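go over this:
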Amino acid sequence: MSEEPASLRVLTLNALAPFFADWPRRRAVLVDALRELRPDVVALQEVAGGGDGDEAGGLLGPDYHLVPHPGRSADGVGAVLASRWPVRTVGVVDLHVTPRTAALPWSAAVVVEVAVPPPLGTGTRRAPQADLAVRRRVRA
């Protein structure tokens, strides 16, 4: 009898800001789908954040560690990275590198480490130069 290989379920989703397209109905569908899919790591875009308007926590439930993107639009909409396991923010890479991106609050990348349990998290691989590598690619 062979063991199933370890797996990591990752999901990315643009939720379309809650100000549009019948949010209460969309929210209910998203909550059901996210609970059924049970992702381990989730990247959500266009979610309202902060205080009582924390949509990511409401969509995912209490079992996730949330890392909000530092940039939000004027109406409070932004992105959130969520993990079932503890996370540590390694840094934020500023992507305001062209005149076109200068006015966009979300022109950045959040770099995190996820404390994944064994068997996936058996080794330590850190990317201390991630910031520099991303900057080199963006500027190329």
